[in-house]
Amino acid sequence: MSDFEETIRRLQSEKGVVGIIVVDSAGRVIHSTIDSDATQSHTAFLQQLCEKTKTSIRELDSSNDLTFLRLRTKKNEIMIAPDKDHVIMVIKDLS
Amino acid sequence: MSAAEQRKLELDRKKQRLAEMKSLRKREDEARVQNLLRLPVANGNAQNGSANRQTLSSNEVDEILREVGIAPKSTTREESPAPPQGAHAENHLDPMSASASHPRISSLLSVDLEFSTVQTASTDNKDSAIYSKGTQTDDERISVGEFSLGSQEFDYDDDMIMPLDHGQFRGRAHSRDQDSPISYNEEIAKILGHTKHVDKVLTRQDTEEKKTQSVQTIQPLSDEEKNRLTLDPEFLDSFNRSCKVIGRALNEDIDIFINYTKDPYEKAIASDDLLHLAQVYHDDTWTSKRLVTGMAFSEHHPDLLAVSYGPCDVPNEPPGVIVVWNTKSKRVTAEFIVYCQSEIQSVAFARFHAHLLLAGCESGQICVWDNRLTSRKLPINRSPLTTQAHTQPVSCLAVVGTKNAHNFVSLSRDGRICSWNVDNLTQPVDGKELVTKDGKPASATRMSFPIGEMQTFVVGCDTGEILAASRNGADPAVIKTDVCYKGHSGTLTGIEFHRASGVVDFSHLFISSSHDWTIKLWSTKDANLKFSFESHPDLVLDVAWSPVHPAVFASVDADGNIFVWNLNEDVEGPVARLRAGGEGDTVYMNKLIWSPDGKHVFVGDDEGRVHMYDVRESLYVLKSEEWNRFARVLSDMKESNEDAEKYNL
Hints:
The complex is a heterodimer.
Chain A: H1 3-12, E1 17-24, E2 29-32, H2 36-60, E3 69-72, E4 76-82, E5 86-93
Antiparallel strand pairs in A: 1-2, 1-5, 3-4, 4-5
Chain B: H1 3-42, H2 58-68, H3 75-79, H4 82-105, H5 111-144, H6 150-164, H7 166-176, H8 181-216, H9 223-231, H10 233-251, H11 266-271, E1 275-281, E2 292-297, E3 304-309, E4 320-326, E5 333-340, E6 344-349, E7 356-361, E8 366-370, E9 381-382, E10 394-401, E11 406-412, E12 416-420, E13 430-435, E14 444-448, E15 456-461, E16 466-470, E17 478-480, E18 483-485, E19 492-497, E20 509-514, E21 519-523, E22 531-533, E23 540-545, E24 552-557, E25 561-566, E26 576-579, E27 589-594, E28 600-605, E29 610-615, H12 625-648
Parallel strand pairs in B: 13-17
Antiparallel strand pairs in B: 1-29, 2-3, 3-4, 4-5, 6-7, 7-8, 8-9, 10-11, 11-12, 12-13, 14-15, 15-16, 16-18, 19-20, 20-21, 21-22, 23-24, 24-25, 25-26, 27-28, 28-29
């Protein structure tokens, strides 16, 4: 098992984690633990959200940058960690 | 040659020149179009070469395709670009005709209108153009691998030039329409000044659109690429770092939404369907902002609930009001409204006179209304203010006895108990002072008679003591009590004997609520049988037994909590809790009463509202075993009390 898979597996074993999606900076899926339809829709929207947030943050302060995005919803919590060349999205079930 | 002829000649010459110019322009224009269309061919984009298409035979096209590396396909492939090409050409005309028509319409056309037309034309154009070329670009990119937006960009640029470059427009427009080229030019020049800025915005929008489109068309990574990425140490490094952050975020199990001010029981209250708010009885003119001081159900008409209200701040309004509500009606209907010139402390229906309503006043008077006299709002009769009767607020009223031998008994704050004949309020039948064992007058707040009993009763005092007394006594002026139940440390707010009658007699039980935040259960028969319920988070203001279920009672506190207890199920806590009012909004619940059928609980607050709550069926439709179960529960209580006493000794 590669280092990458090992990390994914470890992350997935955390309590409440229902899905992990890793995409590259262009929004192409590198790895996903949920089915492809859900991956597609999540990626499409969350990528946009992330980009929009990033630009907003930079507009507010050009020396600032987005490092982490936590979305609390009624059903779950989505954590988005954007990096230079990839974005990790983790969906955590709250119940 | 006459001047007219000269002019005619000149006109002819001009016409000729005009025609020449026309043809010249036409030619120029055609040449330019040809050039334009040939340009892509020069780039090696056979499919984009639109003008040359007609001249290329299918073989030639195949050849070109082969050069680029695309195997020639069936003829349909050849034909397929044709319709888009046609559409393309048409669309080239579209903006021309559209814009060309403008000078004809009016030179006064508004800038906005002009601009929007151009925009529409360009969008149309883009649509058809993108589809045809986009597909081709995709194919090409797959085969070549590294091809990016080259042809797409050309595509866009080509389209975008049109709205932007009005010079080009003008040229085309000329070739189509020469009626007023100059004015059109001026128009354009004017517009250009205005629209330059707008165009910029437009361009930005377009590029953004282009971006999103390019995002949408991004191809998924191949497995190989994925593998390569996941093995890239640089990628792994940053990936692991992000994962650590996420891991920490995941493990952080602090509930950021926790509300420490919230009652932990609240959820259970809200979800519990044991209590359900069914109706709020309220009248804007008569009851608003008044404290509910007393409630009583009519025995003759179990639908009627008399509610007495305390004073309000509004001047010239009567300080004491009684409203008789019809509780069966779906609508909030007040059957009768009566009032008097003193604050009303307690209310009761005269049990054996269906139409009489009694009230004890702050002044010490007792007022009687007859609801047959609907027009008379003031009492038909009132007791005198003498030392024989009450001189202190009458806090409690009870009608006791049988149809043929009955009295009503009133209790005032100073501990004076008077018995009255309903028909004669001029003076009480008898009036006695209640004194404690050591001879002190008792400041009574509440009293209760057991069901069917008219002599013995219990009285709750300000001190928290409960006195058991009998109206019969040798002394004509004083009732001296021997039995005193001590346990409460605060003023008694409610006291009531057990009401439900069934196979087992529980009429010796009574329950009391107090400002010491507790409810206590007592028995007149057995000193060891007692229990304290300590679940209320505030002053307990009233308590009442269910009239049908032997083990059920309800209580309210100053925090607005309504508790329903079922001792057969739980002696430690209520089976249903409900908090009136929203979060952070406390409704001061002052009085509580059960409907005679035990299906509803009525709670009065300090805003002049009476809330009717439906209780669950299990609390009024009961099995016979409930009685025996309750007897067992009581014997358990007694046993544990005896055990505790034994160990204490």
